[in-house]
Amino acid sequence: MDAQGIFISAVKVARKETKMLDLRLTQIELAARWRISHRTLEYWRSTGDGPRFIKIGRRVIYRMEDVLAFEDRELSEIALDETGG
Predict the structure, then answer these.
(1) Which of its termini does the chain have fewer beta carbons within 10 Å around, N or C?
(2) Residues 3-16: pLDDT tens digits?
(3) DSSP per residue over 9-20, as a string?
(4) Overall average pLDDT of the 32-37 stretch
(5) 25 domain residue, yes or no
(6) Could you tell me the residue range of the domain that residue 58 belongs to?
């Protein structure tokens, strides 16, 4: 594969990643992803916990990048608790 082919492949990968990060989830979709009640997400929003969200009128939307960041933070906290750190 030549340099141009490698560049084109890299651009395609970047576009796929960008599309994934552009994904938006509703409260119901995020609750299903995590297998929790959508009411838990409502409670977290009222207490300032949980992932960042966008509220437009009455509609609540979660950006995938915020969901992934929240999952990463939770993973880090769990890993520290298990090692005693």
Answers:
(1) C
(2) 656 656 655 665 66
(3) HHHHHHHHHHHH
(4) 96
(5) yes
(6) 21-83
What is the C-alpha separation between 61 and 24, in angstroms, rounded? Answer: 6
Q: Does residue 56 lie in a domain region?
A: yes
Tell me: the pLDDT tens digits for 73-83?
988 766 566 66
Q: What CATH number corresponds to the domain at position 77?
A: 1.10.1660
**Spatial separation of the C-alpha atoms in residues 85 and 68, rounded to whole Å:** 23
Residue 42 near residue 4, CB atoms below 8 Å? no
On whether residue 53 sits in a domain, the answer given is yes
Residue 78 CA: distances (Å) to CA of 32, 36, 81 = 21, 18, 5
Count how many domains the chain has: 1
Report if residue 40 sits inside a domain: yes
C-alpha–C-alpha distance, residues 81 and 85, integer Å: 6
**Quick one: 67 exposed, middle or buried, by C-beta within 10 A (0-12, 13-18, 19+)?**
buried
